[in-house]
């Protein structure tokens, strides 16, 4: 019986682990359509980021194993983008603060697991300083983006290539919300419309820019992890914390009925985050 349990854990938990990765993919997918939320940060929070970077940096290494691992993640991401875009738009339009606090709660609930992961190869006071600096730098960089890209950017093949690269950076750099920057540049609405109408003049350069950026920079991120795992991970921790603070709704009446609803939605998000972290720890597959 014990041997079966060990085998079950080693293979990644079977159906339970597959479903867990599917749910994680849904959350990560929302990071690409929800302004203020980073798909890369969510990937880091749910224990996917490092493996994504390693896979992209070494495509041929354990190719079949990695493809099988990421199939439910990819399905979940597509589901998160396609199926949840309309409900998210509905709730964000009508119940912005409670919805955002649900996401904030989910991040809070999973942060302890991310903290544990960051210290698995050691943690020193220097790493705490790195995290603090990353938090401050990330906070001001994200705030700077709001003013730097105010207005419209001309929309052509080159700027859509740039848009694809920005989306890729949202994967490679936890805390960076590509939707935010595309909104600042005045390209977000046009991008959503292009996906709805299958406008290849927009979709093609977006995909091209995405792939070029991913392939060009994933090896760099992988090398940084190999040489300075704790330092890089504490940068991620700081930026994730900064990006979480950034999305807190401030211009809102928290004494209203909707404001009070933020408390249970945040608690629900925390509970979900803690549950997913525990499930992740239980069914975490062994790496090669």
Automatic annotation (TrEMBL):
<keyword id="KW-0472">Membrane</keyword>
<feature type="transmembrane region" description="Helical">
    <location>
        <begin position="127"/>
        <end position="145"/>
    </location>
</feature>
<feature type="transmembrane region" description="Helical">
    <location>
        <begin position="157"/>
        <end position="177"/>
    </location>
</feature>
<dbReference type="Pfam" id="PF04018">
    <property type="entry name" value="VCA0040-like"/>
</dbReference>
<keyword id="KW-1133">Transmembrane helix</keyword>
<protein>
    <submittedName>
        <fullName>DUF368 domain-containing protein</fullName>
    </submittedName>
</protein>
<feature type="transmembrane region" description="Helical">
    <location>
        <begin position="197"/>
        <end position="217"/>
    </location>
</feature>
<keyword id="KW-0812">Transmembrane</keyword>
<feature type="transmembrane region" description="Helical">
    <location>
        <begin position="95"/>
        <end position="115"/>
    </location>
</feature>
<feature type="transmembrane region" description="Helical">
    <location>
        <begin position="229"/>
        <end position="248"/>
    </location>
</feature>
<feature type="transmembrane region" description="Helical">
    <location>
        <begin position="26"/>
        <end position="49"/>
    </location>
</feature>
<dbReference type="InterPro" id="IPR007163">
    <property type="entry name" value="VCA0040-like"/>
</dbReference>
<feature type="transmembrane region" description="Helical">
    <location>
        <begin position="69"/>
        <end position="88"/>
    </location>
</feature>
<feature type="transmembrane region" description="Helical">
    <location>
        <begin position="254"/>
        <end position="275"/>
    </location>
</feature>
